[in-house]
Amino acid sequence: MDRRITIQSVTRTQNSFGEMIETWATWATVWAEVKRKAGRENTDSDAVRAESDVEFMIRYKSGLLPTMRIVFESNNYDISSIAEIGRRDGYRISANAFTG
Questions:
Q1: Strand, helix or coil at 48?
Q2: pLDDT digits (tens, 9 = 90+) for 61-71
């Protein structure tokens, strides 16, 4: 676990017009092992989007949810699944980033 990642959770606040807006706030900054998986390209509405799958392994931290996201090397990764390793030893987090 030699990489620093930031885990963010979405927060809802009210702006000056009374509208509810969503922003991302840091939930935790932790050490992780990062394994890159296969990348692929998709065509969506005549635009090419690159998708990269990454697996993050972190130590156990209570409260981690799949609605959170990970920031690593200036990229935002949506969490697709969380698997517990052992009994509260850690987590294996599958996530993907979309660019384009």
A1: strand
A2: 999 999 999 99
Q: Which domain holds residue 22?
A: 3-99
Overall average pLDDT of the 47-64 stretch: 84
What are the residues facing 95 on neighbouring strands?
A: 54, 79
Which DSSP category does 1 fall into? -
Q: Which SS3 state, helix, strand or coil, does residue 90 take? A: strand
Number of domain units in the chain? 1
The CATH number of residue 68's host domain is 2.40.10.270
Tokens found for residue 79: 């969490």
* Dihedral, CA of residue 96, residue 86, residue 89 and residue 63, to nearest 10: 60
